[in-house]
């Protein structure tokens, strides 16, 4: 069972600057705030880094809409990036340095921690990374196969799968 440890967003929707959310301990984490502060953008970021391909599902008209579009005081950015770190609490050692290891057979590395990143550039180019190494969308999908977060999951089964984090 994997648990959500950290999400880092930069240039994703309303998150112009690098923003890091850390999740500690057991139980349920809640994100609260006033309307328009970006709460639902965090949920979109999780779906996106896991490989969501539908801009409509991310509340946009086209995929480029996930890139920070700018404001009166800030220029639009050229890239959106989301990084999500997950741990397997049964083998994770919090004081050990996380060294990137290859994912094999869709299983997290022996360190107990896996980090996935998705980037999209305004040029249309995109990339996926697993533990800092270039990966394919299929590699991300294989990693989460059977967790309820894979592409064959229904919306109701995906909600239940978030309990695993």
What is the strand and helix layout of this fold?
Elements: E1 3-10, E2 19-22, H1 39-49, E3 79-87, E4 113-121, E5 126-130, E6 133-135, H2 137-143, H3 155-161
Can you characterise this structure?
The chain is an alpha+beta fold and 165 residues long. Helices cover 15% and strands 23% of the residues. The protein is globular and about 50 Å long. Residues 152-165 have low confidence and may be disordered.
A few lines on this structure:
The chain has helices at 39-49, 137-143, 155-161, and strands at residues 3-10, 19-22, 79-87, 113-121, 126-130, 133-135.
Compute the gyration radius: what is it? 16 Å
Number of strands: 6
Q: What is the straight-line distance between the termini?
A: 8 Å
The sequence of SSEs as H and E is EEHEEEEHH
How many separate helices? 3
| Sheet with the most strands: spatial strand order | 2-1-3-4-5-6
Question: Biggest sheet, in brief?
Answer: 6 strands, antiparallel
Shape category: globular
Uncertain ranges = 152-165
Mean pLDDT: 82
What structural category arises from helix and sheet content?
alpha+beta
Can you give the helix content as a percent range?
A: 10-25%
Core attributes:
165 residues; alpha+beta; 6-stranded antiparallel β-sheet; 6 strands; 15% helix; 23% strand
């Amino acid at each position: 069972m994997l648990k959500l440890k950290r999400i880092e967003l930069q240039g994703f929707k309303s998150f112009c600057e690098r923003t890091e959310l850390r999740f500690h301990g057991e139980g349920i984490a809640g994100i609260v705030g006033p309307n328009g502060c970006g709460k639902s953008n965090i949920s979109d970021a999780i779906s996106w880094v896991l490989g969501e391909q539908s801009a409509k599902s991310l509340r946009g008209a086209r995929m480029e809409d996930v890139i920070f579009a700018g404001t009166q005081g800030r220029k639009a950015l050229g890239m959106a990036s989301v990084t999500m770190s997950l741990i397997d609490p049964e083998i994770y050692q919090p004081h050990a340095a996380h060294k990137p290891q290859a994912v094999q057979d869709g299983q997290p590395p022996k360190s107990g921690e896996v980090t996935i990143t998705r980037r999209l550039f305004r040029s249309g180019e995109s990339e996926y990374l697993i533990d800092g190494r270039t990966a394919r969308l299929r590699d991300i999908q294989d990693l989460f196969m059977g967790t309820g977060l894979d592409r064959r999951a229904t919306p109701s089964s995906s909600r239940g799968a978030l309990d695993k984090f």
